[in-house]
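Our preliminary data section would be incomplete without showing what the modeling component actually yields. Below, a chain of 374 amino acids is followed by its predicted structure, encoded as tokens that our downstream tools consume directly.
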Amino acid sequence: MNHEIRRLFPAAQKYTYLNSAFFAPVPTISVRAIAAQLEDISNHGSINVDDWSATKNRARRLVAEMLGGRAENIAFMRNTSDGFSSVALGMNWKKGDNIVTFAGEFPSNFYPWRALRDNFGVEIRACAEKSGRIDSDELLSLIDEQTKLVSISAVQYSSGFRVDLERVGRAARKVDALFAVDIIQAFGVLPFDLPAQFVDVAAGASYKWLCSPEGCGIFYLGERALERVRQTCTGWQSVEKPWDFENREQNFKPNALAWENGMCGSALFYGLEQSLKLLHETGAEKIAAYLEKLTDFLCEILPTARYEIVSSRAKGEKSQIVCIEPRNNLSSREIAEHLRRESIIVSSRGTRVRIAPHFFNNFEDIQRLIENLP
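Predicted structure:
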């Protein structure tokens, strides 16, 4: 990858940073953009308020283009959980409905559905992990005429397994269920075309692979979802002309923007825009291909006598995340702490060490990780 990209990330100079599946560092261009907006408010107050909205909408268009959707289908929320909670609260559920998912989903893609189970008797059907994989046939076998929602992560946080979204989406569409996808562990490093993948709902956030600050949650609602998910948290920004304070009976926005109910951290969107531009200009396909080479190299040189590769490396199932398990007596937490003392940053997830390079990493980073594994 271009050395100019690496120079934008001070963390890549200070550390061997392989933890973008948790928090990715924010590039200097984004930090400067955030600081400039705050400086503008300090100097001018509300004078440039129109630019705040314009910046947010430019970021919205970039998100839409990168996901293959339209800007009016993208709402900005606080985080991934906000998106899934909006779906759980905004649909009409009854006892006998079921939700099909994966047992190892990150909690933000479980607790909203658990609340439906506890409060409305909605059944949760979940397939288990098998050798670091999701058996797609088993997952699809759980879908039936009572399935109201299928919800899955594009890439699993604890294994790096990549799901065939189009196949799952087709199966959900056959029974007229909505298909919801947690995109947080894939957006920014893998290409998407949500309409072509039959995705009705997508939720994610800015602080992982998008290399942006926390607080810019991303919520995509396709046309089928807009028909079935009602607003449950409405505010003054939800209407068509929010600055018309006198017309209290005006229409709500007819698209996903109605889910944006009030003011937000405007400065954050200045940073998000710059990070999105960097990723978009580099190209999702190019980033994905590069990270496949990096992670393939990691798996090739990993000392398999001491570590087992948990993540599937099969075509169509591999991702930018590689999870390994120690064969020795060390715990994953002990290994992560040992590497941290060597300024190598990874994550401990259960019994696994999760390694997650981004486009600012290089082959030397991978080599250094391997040389320092205990």
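Residues 6 and 12 are 7 Å apart (CA to CA). The first helix runs from residue 3 to 7. Preliminary results of this kind motivate Aim 1 of the renewal.
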